[in-house]
Amino acid sequence: MKKQKDKAILDEIAKIIREFAGYGYRRVTKELKNKGFRINHKRVLRIMRKNNLTVKRKRRFKITTDSNHKFRIYPNLIKGLVLGRINQVWVADITYVRLPKGFVYLAVVLDAYSRRVIGWCLREDLTEELALRALKTAIASRTIVQGLIHHSDRGVQYASIAYTNLLRENNILISMSRKGNCYDNAKAESFFKTIKAEEI
């Protein structure tokens, strides 16, 4: 009985993928639910993997972090820190979004505890202003509490005078990843991976 149900689901998944090339398992799950199937994304992913229907994405990179600059590098304040509330740690990062012609850049600020986006900016240029606008949105959307830590990589946008001054003016502690260690900013990296795989 279960095999018959999986076969019916597989047939419908194949139809969806033919119609919407590039859909990941989450979007496929949504389409199945729209068609009346009672199913969760874990089962859809299992069926898609078993039948080699998952999206194969080429790993193409564009550098967004320039840590070769003259600005001050701050110590990592979140190593070993246990998260217990919102507004304890904000994490910031920048990625690129590939378009049919060229790229745009997305800067985000996430609350590390809730993993909610609290500030973002999308621009065609990889500049200090990109990161600043995302930070200003975050500051405007949240109440700053004592001891709040802002964590980022060592990129020039985050180490710039304008950016670090804005953090200090709002009594936000500055923390940066260790050199060449992407795992220090894993929450932002995970967020970008999700939106690129499932939403863009």
Label this structure with key terms.
200 residues, alpha/beta, Nucleotidyltransferase, domain 5, five-stranded mixed sheet, 7 helices, 5 strands, 39% helix, elongated, disordered C terminus
Summarize the structure.
This protein has helices spanning 2-19, 25-34, 41-50, 128-141, 156-159, 161-169, 186-198; strands at 89-98, 103-111, 117-123, 149-152, 173-176. It has two domains: 2-50; 89-198, 2-Layer Sandwich (Nucleotidyltransferase, domain 5), CATH 3.30.420.
Descriptive account of the structure:
The chain is an alpha/beta fold and 200 residues long. The protein folds into 2 domains: 2-50; 89-198, Nucleotidyltransferase, domain 5, CATH 3.30.420. The chain has 7 helices and 5 strands; from the N terminus they run αααβββαβααβα. It has helices at residues 2-19, 25-34, 41-50, 128-141, 156-159, 161-169, 186-198; strands at 89-98, 103-111, 117-123, 149-152, 173-176. A 5-stranded mixed β-sheet has the order 3-2-1-4-5, with helices on both faces. A hairpin with a 5-residue loop joins strand 2 (103-111) and strand 3. Helix 2 (25-34) crosses helix 3. The radius of gyration is 20 Å and the shape is elongated.
The helical percent reads 25-40%
Query: Can you count the helices?
Result: 7
Distance between the termini: 36 Å
Backbone shape: elongated
How much is the radius of gyration in Å?
20 Å
- Class from helix and strand fractions: alpha/beta
Order of helices and strands: HHHEEEHEHHEH
**Count of folded domains:** 2
CATH class call of the largest domain: Alpha Beta
CATH architecture of the largest domain: 2-Layer Sandwich
Biggest sheet character? 5 strands, mixed
Classify the fold: give the CATH topology of the largest domain. Nucleotidyltransferase, domain 5
Could you state the CATH homologous superfamily of the largest domain? Ribonuclease H-like superfamily/Ribonuclease H
Stretches with pLDDT under 50, minimum 5 residues = 58-64, 196-200
Main sheet strand line-up: 3-2-1-4-5
Strand content: 15-25%
Average pLDDT, rounded to a whole number, is 82
The count of DSSP E runs of length 2 or more, i.e. the number of strands, is 5
